[in-house]
Amino acid sequence: MKRVFAFLVLAATVAAACGGGNTAGTTSSPTAAASASPAPTAKPIQVGLVTDVGGLNDKSFNQAANTGRLNAEKDFGLKTSVIESKKQEDYVPNLTTFAQQNYDLVIAVGFLMQNAAWKVAKQFPNVKFAIIDGAPANDAGNTENLPNVANLFFKEQEAGYLVGVVAATMAKNKVGKATHNTVCSMGGIPIPPVDRYMAGYQDAIKTVSPTTTILIGYSNDFVDQQKGKEVGLNQISKGCDILFQVAGGSGLGYIAAAKEKGVYAIGVDVDQIDVAPGTVITSAIKRVDKAVYDTSKAVKDGTFKAGDSSFNATNDGVGYGKLDPVVPADAKAATDKALADIKSGAIKPKTDLTVKP
Amino acid sequence: MPIVSVLFALAVGAIFILASGHDPISAYIDLFRGAFGTPYDITETLIQTIPLILAGLSVAVAFRTGLFNIGAESQLLVGAVAAGAVGARFGFLPGPILFPMVLVAGIGAGAAWAAIAGYLKAARGVNEVITTIMQNYIVVFVIHWLLQNGPMTAPNALGTPASAPIGDGAVLPIIIPNELVPLTRLHAGIFLAILAVVVFWFVLWRTPLGYELRAVGLGPRAAAQAGIDPRSRTVIAMAIAGGFAGLAGMIQVTGVFHRVFDGFSAGYGFDAIAVALLGKNSPIGVVLAALLFGAFARGGSIMQANAGVSAQLVSVIEAIVLFVIAAELIVRIIARRRGPKPLEAIA
């Protein structure tokens, strides 16, 4: 009897799934009407943010994107929402959810969403999309610009170069606990934005201090702190005393390894000096919040531009964070000079890794 | 009891929602609406449910034989990799030939991989909990290697660690026309999942093998007295468990992703343990528990978008469900130890 009942439940579910389908054409408009109803005069601009699997509390770019969203909401009177993606297969439905509710702008945070954004943006030509760190990519893996998608790119190599100057100067002069003339970096997954950070970092070290040993590793993860910590401990055992993380949440474990062993770390994306004071000496900053904020503003002002946009040192889209007191004045001076040279075009940091795993 | 544990978990979850400054009632309404509010939401919930059903069956069949399969995750991944490799390598073949090959590859790889743990338990007495956990690590790292500049890495994989796409013949079709539910991704894998539930029920309760497996699960020594060799049944049970999990991975590849990504499972094999426990290792129980967890997964995202309550809350609720069930099991085990052992009928 129980079994029969349960089968009925199942059958009812399936029937609901199929039967409900007949009304699909009409359901989308009531939803739109409902979301528009709170504002009787003018419909507020709606901005939806979809994070990647790193989650909102990655103390890194998802969090920065969310900061940009909240600032835009406050400053421009927008209506905004966020969905955290728990796994890669959630990207398409999460983006679709906002698009179906007729959001004005849907922002996909992260390179890993390129294909998902392509799929959804093609289905909703009247909704504007933006991809942080990426451009729409079709199923064959080729990028394809769409008229309703803004591709928000950053020159990570410039931020990587700046913190590389800090690390190299300290390693060369054996400042504080940096006694082994060996510096390291760890990426999450080897994808272009991650590698650009580390390419700039290595470029600076080769330029400023050619004798310094450079090691590189990957945690193969943007979430798991333990994996980041293992890579960190391994590198420290090989003499590393300045560790630059480019691995989102996983990188927090990498910083924890540096803290545990009493060496230095460099944060990424947002200012991470408060993550481990005394351990984190500076951070490579990428103003994802600015990209989200500016794009939301552009949609509100009607100046949204599809295609590539670059956020770089010149427009304050990238930079370096607060410095720990241990960083000597000459390192700061060298970094500021490098920043000026990048802005003037005298230095063009490399985008390809010199030292590979 | 499962319903009580779910209600208890929801009640505790409500306290968390209140503490975070939101209204629990409206949050739960958003959770429900997110999972079942529109036809699109229902199809997305079902997509989440399919791998949970299959991985849940994997854990359940092992439980019925007295084995704790913590390795459904790795068996799922092995099945996915095998299906993805065959689907891409022989992608030029027509569907009627290619699809069965991919199906067999996924199920077979999962079964063979799990059978290793079964064999070690039967021949060497190695605890299957240990071996299946270790197998998870092995697979995760082998997949890193395969997909990051390894033999399976696609030359143009969107820049992410991923394999080449499988041939069109291996792709599971979308079963609901776009005119009915626009953009739906619900694929024919749901039929395979339903079929698997029927197979699970039939094998365990309508065949001599199923009787023997359950007999071993209830008491290996008694089963041995009755002439059933617990060792061979252990290997067989693990192989069946691995087959279900491998099918889950194969369906994710052929139905959802059409290629293998690094880190694409996100813990279905672990959620499956909760699904099997909550479903009391029965066919219908597993389906309903998987549907509940699938609805949580889908609805949690929408709850976050609309009510502003973190989607992580869903994980908290799931954990409490598991906690209550585990507590019940422990109480029962203690009661059994203390009192005289009751004669157990083979249910």
SSE blueprint and pairings:
The complex is a heterodimer of chains A (357) and B (347).
Chain A: H1 2-19, H2 24-36, E1 46-50, H3 61-76, E2 79-83, H4 91-100, E3 105-109, H5 114-123, E4 128-132, E5 149-154, H6 156-172, E6 182-187, H7 192-208, E7 213-218, H8 225-237, E8 242-246, H9 248-261, E9 264-269, E10 280-286, H10 288-301, E11 307-311, E12 318-320, H11 329-344
Parallel strand pairs in A: 1-2, 1-3, 3-4, 4-5, 5-11, 6-7, 6-8, 8-9, 9-10
Antiparallel strand pairs in A: 10-12
Chain B: H1 2-19, H2 24-36, H3 39-64, H4 72-89, H5 95-124, H6 128-147, H7 189-206, H8 208-218, H9 220-225, H10 230-257, H11 268-278, H12 283-307, H13 312-338
Helix pairs in contact in B: 1-2, 1-13, 2-3, 2-12, 3-7, 3-10, 3-11, 3-12, 4-5, 4-6, 4-10, 4-11, 5-6, 5-10, 7-8, 7-10, 8-10, 11-12, 12-13
Summarize the structure.
Chain A is α/β, with parallel strands linked by helices and about 350 residues long.
Task: Characterise the protein shown here.
- The complex is a heterodimer of chains A (357) and B (347).
- Chain A has a six-stranded parallel β-sheet, sandwiched between helices. Chain A has a six-stranded mixed β-sheet with strand order 7-6-8-9-10-12, sandwiched between helices.
- Chain A has a domain at 156-286 and 318-344: Response regulator (Rossmann fold), CATH 3.40.50.2300.
- Chain A is 44% helix and 18% strand.
- The radius of gyration of chain A is 23 Å and the shape is elongated.
- Chain A has helices spanning 2-19, 24-36, 61-76, 91-100, 114-123, 156-172, 192-208, 225-237, 248-261, 288-301, 329-344, and strands spanning 46-50, 79-83, 105-109, 128-132, 149-154, 182-187, 213-218, 242-246, 264-269, 280-286, 307-311, 318-320.
- In chain A, strand 1 (46-50), helix 3 and strand 2 form a beta-alpha-beta unit.
- Chain A has 357 residues and is α/β, with parallel strands linked by helices.
- In chain A, helix 4 (91-100) packs parallel to helix 5, helix 6 runs antiparallel to helix 11 (329-344) and helix 8 (225-237) crosses helix 9.
- Chain B has a single domain, classed as ABC transporter involved in vitamin B12 uptake, BtuC (Orthogonal Bundle).
- Chain B is mostly helical and 347 residues long.
- Chain B has helices at residues 2-19, 24-36, 39-64, 72-89, 95-124, 128-147, 189-206, 208-218, 220-225, 230-257, 268-278, 283-307, 312-338.
- In chain B, helix 3 (39-64) runs parallel beside helix 7 (189-206), helix 3 packs across helix 11 and helix 3 (39-64) crosses helix 12.
- The longest helix of chain B has 30 residues, at 95-124.
- The radius of gyration of chain B is 21 Å and the shape is globular.
- Chain B contains 13 helices and no strands.
- The interface between A and B is large, with 57 and 55 residues.
